[in-house]
Structures are given as C-alpha cells and as structure tokens.
Design a protein that fits this description.
The protein has about 475 residues and is mostly helical. Helices cover about 70% and strands about 0% of the residues.
C-alpha cells in the first residue's frame, strides 16, 4: 500500500480509531495485523519473505544469548547474516551480478553468457533487512537483551509507517515504545497531522510537480543540451529530497498520532557546508547504521589516516550499492566518498580555511550543493552509458539556441516556472518549522491553523489533480 493512495486514506483513519478505542493489550495485535495488511496489499507473496526474515533473526538472537561458547554465538550470528543478507542478495543483486559476470567474460575475450534473472524486488527489503540485522548485532555485542515476545519483535520489524522506506529504527529506540501503555494526547494528534500534511505537500506538490521536468530530460540523455541537463539535475536534487523526506515526514506523522516517536531522518541537508556534514543530515538512519555496523568495525579513524580514507571509501561504495543494483549507484557513492576523503586530507594537511562568516558560509553551502547535485546525475541516470551522454551534453549548448532547446524540451512556460518557484518557497517556509519536535501542549495551535489549512487545501487539490490524470507516482526510495 502506498501513502499517496485512496486506500491509505481509508486504512489509516480506521487503524488510528481502533488503536485508541481498544485496550492496551490488544493494540500490538491490531498494529501487527495492520502492518502485514499494509505490506501484503502490494504483493501477498512477499509477506513470506518478511515473516521468514523476522523468524530467522529472532531465533538467531535467542541462540546467541543462550549460547555458552564464542563459537556457538558466531554460528548463530552467521546464520542470521547468511539468511538475511542472502535473501537481499538473491532478490536485489542476482541480476546485477550475472550481468556483470557476463560483461567481464566478454571483456576477457570469452563468449560470455546470456542469463536473465528476473525476480520481483520486494518493497522495503533493504530497510527491514538492516533493521533485523541491527537487532541481531546489538544482541551479539551485548548492547541489548533479546525480545522474548515474538509478537512485539515482529511488530518492530514490520511497523507499517516506516516499513518500506524507513527510517531504519534501532531496537533500543522503537521496541520500548511499542510495549509501553500510551495514553491519548491531543498534542500528538495535532503535531502528527502537521507532519503528515508537510510530507504530503513535499511529495504531491513539489516532488511530483518536478518529476515531469526531470523525466523530460533524462528520458532522452543524448538529445538534451547543457542548460536542460543542468536544470533537470537541480530539479532532481529538489525532487528526491522532497520525495524521500516527504515519506519520512508522513511516517513520523502517522507514528506520532499513534503515540510513537520515530527518529529524524533529515535535517535540512542542503544547508550543509561540507559533504561530510551533508551525510550527517541526509538519510540519518542509514548513515548512522553504516557508521555503527560497518565503518567502526572496519577500524574507523583509529588505525591511521590511510586506513580511515579506505574505510570511508568502502562505506560509500557499499552505500551506493545498497541504493541500487547498478554501477551508476556505485559511481555515485564512490564520487561522494572521494569528496569526503578530499575534505579530510585537506583538513589534515592544514590547508587554508575560509574565514568563518556568513558570506563564506553561503559559499561553502553552494559548493556542497553543487558537488552533491553533480553526483545526483549518476544516481538518476539509467546506466553508465546514459550518464556518459549526459556528461558530454552538459558541456555543450550554452548559447541562446541551447537555452531555447532546453525550454522547448522541458516545456517550460511562465506558469510552470512560477508554480515551481512558489512550491520551493513554500517548502523553505515549511522547513523552518521543526514539527517533529513539537511541544507536548497545543500552545500556538491557533496561530498555526492558517498554515495547516493552507497545507491541507494544497495537498487536496494536488491529489485530486493527480487522480484526475489517472496518475500515481510511487515514492522513489520504494525501489531500494
């Protein structure tokens, strides 16, 4: 089930009403059933994979805790890693690996082989796999105790607001909240609604509004001029942020209305002054996951500068591959990793630093935005070949004819430009309101009512327009 469907508009209010009407002892079963219904709505067969991953990770963690030997603990950990990562590898990377192996064979002078692996990629598998692994690894490290109740653990893995696109929650943060007896708070309902509306505004008004402009250029990479590619790539930078952070807002809002606080996943990333800071603000749950479960075990910054640089590159390359089974994502991650390594080396070498004032701060923000946006070109391109065409096209057509071609290709008119500019300005105002940290009372609700009315009205109009066009844009990160 998708957040931006009419089915969810019926599903969530019913779940919300039943949740607060039922006694506490029945609520976890309601949420568990609702979560599996939410997931099975897309493809019933994927529910078996979700259930299997849940059972294997739960049993493995119990085996780790009960084992009296280091070898036994490692065997149980290996079972969890092989099963969970194995499922992820088969469903997400089997086709990529066979295609790559065939290409390598042809490059070496062989005939290669033509094997097609066409498996349905289960929605959210990358997210809930990492969530189960964090539980098993935390138990192995002795950071947490095992959850004895399978029902609560299954709910932790499948909790529907964040099941298919995060944030990737940690067991010590989400599990206790699922078990505590929540009481209805009007402030939770209010601030949750604020987050829902902000998320829908980002997705339906900004992201979906920009998608046509981006698609018009990236669908014909060999025909676009430099201005068209530059404009489309900047538009994609805004689109993917609003698409993904919009999902996170909706997830946080829905959970907040149930009395549960999910972690922040975005903190105005395009205001970052370095690539390193950008990744502390973008997809925070994934960044912290890789930091705790990959970067630090590799040695982090504890084994010298050279090893630290290698560890950073490994993390970014793996992060790129996590996002998608294609070399474009590997290049995307590798480029951003090199940017971070370059910044680290410059700092360690004692390179001259800009004075710390507002102007230089803006210049550093602009530099970071340009680097990140350039990397988005590889992320959005359909293949390395298409990325090459886009890079070549980016260097040409910067004359009046090229700009005219860009306006024609993207069908840019005064109306479309005005709508895009107004949407981004409204987004900027919405980002200034940190509703995820709303107060526990309703003070200020009256002054905010006009903003909420504006949001609800805008989202409603955008949604009706989308439905009238028989369209429905899934969230971009659903494919990861």
């Amino acid at each position: 089930m998708n957040f931006n469907t009419l089915e969810f508009l019926v599903f969530f209010p019913v779940v919300l009403a039943l949740y607060w009407l039922l006694p506490h002892r029945f609520r976890r079963w309601l949420l568990l059933i609702a979560s599996y219904l939410f997931y099975l709505w897309w493809n019933p067969w994927t529910g078996f994979l979700l259930l299997g991953t849940t059972l294997v990770s739960w049993l493995s963690a119990r085996g780790i805790e009960r084992s009296n030997s280091a070898g036994g603990r490692k065997l149980w950990l290996a079972l969890a890693l092989v099963c969970c990562l194995g499922c992820l590898g088969v469903f997400k990377y089997a086709g990529f690996l066979t295609d790559t192996a065939g290409s390598v064979a042809r490059l070496l002078g062989g005939e290669g082989f033509d094997v097609t692996v066409d498996l349905v990629l289960p929605v959210g598998i990358s997210f809930y796999t990492f969530q189960t692994l964090s539980y098993v690894l935390d138990v192995y490290r002795g950071k947490i105790k095992t959850e004895q109740d399978l029902g609560y653990y299954a709910l932790f893995v499948s909790f529907f607001p964040q099941l298919v696109a995060g944030p990737i929650e940690r067991p010590d943060h989400l599990l206790p909240q699922l078990k505590v007896r929540h009481t209805f708070q009007a402030s939770d309902l209010y601030w949750g609604l604020c987050l829902l509306c902000r998320g829908y505004f980002k997705k339906l008004v900004v992201a979906d509004g920009l998608s046509a402009l981006v698609d018009s250029v990236y669908a014909v990479p060999g025909e676009a001029s430099g201005p068209a590619i530059a404009l489309a790539t900047v538009a994609f930078a805004v689109q993917i942020y609003c698409d993904f952070s919009g999902y996170s807002d909706i997830a946080q809002g829905a959970a907040r209305m149930l009395g549960i606080r999910l972690m922040d996943n975005f903190r105005r990333p395009y205001g970052a002054r370095s690539v390193r800071e950008f990744w502390r603000r973008w997809h925070i749950s994934l960044t912290s996951w890789f930091t705790d479960y990959l970067y630090k075990p590799l040695g982090g910054s504890r084994k010298g500068l050279a090893r630290q640089c290698v560890n950073i590159l490994i993390v970014f390359l793996v992060s790129g591959l996590w996002h998608g089974a294609d070399w474009t994502f590997v290049v995307w991650g590798g480029f951003l990793g090199l940017c971070q390594v370059a910044g680290l080396l410059w700092q360690r070498a004692g390179g001259p630093a800009l004075p710390d004032n507002r102007l230089t701060g803006l210049l550093r923000q602009g530099r970071t935005f340009l680097l990140v946006t350039f990397a988005w070109l590889f992320f959005r391109a359909g293949s390395l070949e298409e990325a090459g065409l886009l890079l070549r096209g980016l260097t040409s057509g910067w004359d009046s004819a090229g700009w005219q071609s860009a306006l024609s290709l993207m069908e840019l008119t005064a109306d479309t430009v005005l709508r895009a500019v107004l949407s981004v300005l409204c987004l900027f105002l919405l980002e200034r309101a940190d509703w995820s940290r709303g107060t526990d009372d309703t003070e200020g609700a009256v002054s905010a009512a006009q903003g909420i009315f504006f949001l609800v009205s805008t989202v409603t109009v955008a949604w009706l327009a989308l439905l009238a066009a028989n369209g429905e844009n899934a969230f971009i990160y659903f494919q990861f």
